[in-house]
Design goal:
Strand order of the largest sheet of chain A: 3-5-4-15
Family (chain B): Belongs to the SKP1 family.
Strand content of chain B: 5-15%
InterPro entries (chain B): SKP1 (IPR016897), SKP1-like (IPR001232), SKP1-like_dim_sf (IPR036296), SKP1/BTB/POZ_sf (IPR011333), Skp1_comp_dimer (IPR016072), Skp1_comp_POZ (IPR016073)
Organism (chain A): Pristionchus pacificus (Parasitic nematode worm)
Oligomer: heterodimer
Number of strands of chain B: 3
Protein name (chain A): F-box domain-containing protein
Shape of chain A: elongated
Strand content of chain A: 15-25%
Protein name (chain B): Skp1-related protein
Order of helices and strands of chain B: EEHEHHHHHH
Structural class of chain B: mainly alpha
Number of strands of chain A: 15
Order of helices and strands of chain A: HHEEHEEHEHEHEEEHEHEEEHHHHEHEH
Structural class of chain A: alpha/beta
Largest sheet of chain B: 3 strands, mixed
Largest sheet of chain A: 4 strands, mixed
Largest interface: A-B, 42 and 43 residues
Radius of gyration of chain A: 22 Å
Radius of gyration of chain B: 19 Å
CATH superfamily of chain B: Potassium Channel Kv1.1, Chain A
Number of domains of chain A: 2
Number of helices of chain A: 14
Number of helices of chain B: 7
Distance between the termini of chain B: 57 Å
Strand order of the largest sheet of chain B: 2-1-3
């Protein structure tokens, strides 16, 4: 008769492991090859028995697990995972959507990342099972990359992850040269804005929304109102380009939870709170500056010059906007100090759909003691690359 | 006093006070769905089958519920207070004879199935207490789990764990 300890329902094992600390969980891993012991919210490992779970989950038992070098999937049961990458492709199972996948996974091994390649329907089933196992594990990042079903995936994610404190949402895409390619995922103002709102009203610290197409001015307005509604210090840090007709091309937004004056610098990143594109000129006039030209808003301009637009105090707090909603605030935030909490977070994106479940705070135990030696690879983090604005 | 009959998987009948069953979310739901609380319904004639719980385990569960009759029923999850949970002496003594055996685990699984939150919490806590301060091999020995690892595999796991130690 099999030992019941090894056959406890994962949920029950999870509840037991709630009372254990990291080291005790690690000892449990040595009890048996059964990986239930790995399911612990306290150690914040997303260490699921992915292989078995997936086999149970996926239709026809079809499974495509990639972990670095093919063939290593067999060792998954003895592996503690701190991140699971659900790689959902539109292509057939097993087919590589992105040529960079394997090289990225190789680099990601330091994070003990597992990628599971799933079709969208399988993803839904998979997540249904994964959801209870993720109870208590902080979902740090959802990464999605551009494809026609992007928004559908995000909808699904939000459905499953409702109520979680998602601290980062990346909607980005890598092209073949691994550079961030601004992606078109915009699907009308309503849902997108509402999704952003949901994330913001949780404890989202950062939101990256590269978009090839301009957000409508109405969307920008909605975002601004939203930031005021959530009643917290937040910054919409926009790398923006304004074309000759002064339409707004939104590059990257960063929404910071607690930015302060000391971290606000004026350089190549622009913090734009726009109610109307026409306000650009209006604001400039109020600030006594010469009329803006499109060139001023071009990124190249910012990189080669250090010009502040608007004034420092007006940028510091968004609540200022309540008094002067038409004002343009342009500046940037030095995000480097804020990257630290995310050092175990998602690092890279590749074609297809990706969701990163990140054991967000692996370096911190309940009492705040650092316990991990895992190193961040800055080169893997497109966000960090983009966020390092040199101070003036 | 209204009695409701619970039927275990091995067909044993257990008449239980209605009041006691409020501790079990699963049974409470069944009672409501079967309208057993209605005055017109003959509750005694409508036993509640519990196909996932064996008779001896159900007996222990009832014994536990009787002792904890009147305790406030835990609402929802209260994960933040896990560290503060202490297994009372009575419960410790209750779990102890079955500890390190399948009985305790069956009781835990039954508590989960029957959605008796207080029992589940205390039971899980008691189990976790047996893991504390023990090495993997020690836990294996106490719980009678065969060692499935080769020395090489064991070493590999230890090595994998190093990064987080």
């Amino acid at each position: 008769m099999p030992n019941l300890l090894l056959n406890l329902p994962p949920k029950t094992f999870h509840q037991i492991s709630d009372f254990l600390d990291e080291n005790e969980i690690l000892q449990l891993r040595l009890v048996s090859k059964m990986a239930n012991a790995n399911v612990s919210r306290l150690v914040r490992y997303c260490s699921l028995t992915i292989k078995e779970l997936s086999i149970r989950t996926l239709a026809n038992g079809v499974l495509a697990i990639k972990f670095g070098v093919e063939g290593e999937a067999l060792n998954l049961r003895s592996l503690i995972l701190c991140r699971i990458t659900l790689f959902c492709s539109l292509s057939e199972i097993g087919e590589n959507v992105d040529e960079n996948l394997f090289s990225l996974l190789e680099e990601d091994r330091g994070y003990k990342t597992l990628s599971v390649q799933l079709m969208s329907a399988q993803m839904e089933r998979f997540m249904t099972i994964v959801k209870p196992l993720l109870k208590g594990i902080k979902i740090d990042t959802i990464n999605s990359v551009g494809c026609e079903c992007d928004l559908e995936l995000i909808r699904m994610c939000m459905k499953f992850l409702e109520g979680r404190e998602i601290t980062r949402l990346n909607l980005v895409k890598l092209n073949k040269s691994k550079k961030i390619e601004i992606t078109e995922i915009y699907d009308g103002p309503g849902e997108y804005i509402s999704m952003i709102k949901k994330i913001l009203t949780a404890k989202c610290e950062r939101l990256n929304i590269p978009d090839q197409r301009p957000f409508s001015l109405r969307d920008i307005e909605n975002l601004c109102q939203l930031l005021n509604c959530v009643n917290k210090k937040a910054y919409l840090d926009v790398s923006a380009e304004i074309n000759t007709s002064f339409d707004v091309h939104v590059g990257v937004y960063r929404i910071l939870g607690d930015a302060d004056d000391g971290n606000v610098v004026f350089s190549r990143r622009f913090l734009c709170i726009l109610g109307d594109a026409g306000d650009i000129l209006h604001s400039c006039a109020r600030d006594g500056r010469s009329a803006l030209t499109p060139a001023l808003f071009h990124l190249q301009f910012g990189e080669s010059s250090s010009v502040s637009l608007g004034n420092r105090t007006s940028i510091a707090h968004l609540d200022h906007q309540k008094e002067d909603p038409g004002r343009i605030l342009i500046g940037s935030s030095d995000l480097r100090s804020r990257m630290a909490p995310h050092k175990k977070a998602a690092s890279q994106n590749f074609g297809g759909w990706i969701i990163h479940f990140v054991a967000q705070d692996l370096s911190t135990t309940r009492d705040g003691q650092s316990t991990t030696k895992a190193k961040k690879k800055p080169s893997l983090d497109p966000l960090s690359r983009r966020s390092q604005s040199p101070p003036l | 006093m209204v009695l409701i009959t619970l039927v275990s998987s091995d067909e044993q009948n257990f008449p239980v006070e209605r009041e006691l069953l409020k501790q079990s979310g699963t049974i409470e739901t069944l009672i409501v769905n079967m309208n057993l609380d209605d005055e017109d319904t003959d509750a005694a004639a409508m036993p509640i089958p519990l196909p996932n719980v064996k008779g001896d385990v159900l007996e222990k569960v009832i014994q536990w519920m009787e002792h904890h009759k009147g305790d406030p029923v835990k609402e929802g999850d209260n994960e933040d207070n896990n560290a503060e949970i202490v297994v009372p002496q009575w419960d410790d003594d209750f779990f102890k004879p079955a500890m390190y055996g399948s009985k305790h685990l069956e009781l835990t699984v039954a508590a989960s199935y029957l959605d008796i939150k207080n029992l589940l919490t205390l039971s899980c806590k008691a189990i976790s207490n047996t893991f504390k301060g023990k090495t993997g091999p020690q836990i294996r020995e106490e719980w009678g789990v065969p060692n499935e690892f080769t020395p090489e595999e064991e070493e590999a796991i230890r090595k994998e764990n190093e990064w987080s130690e």
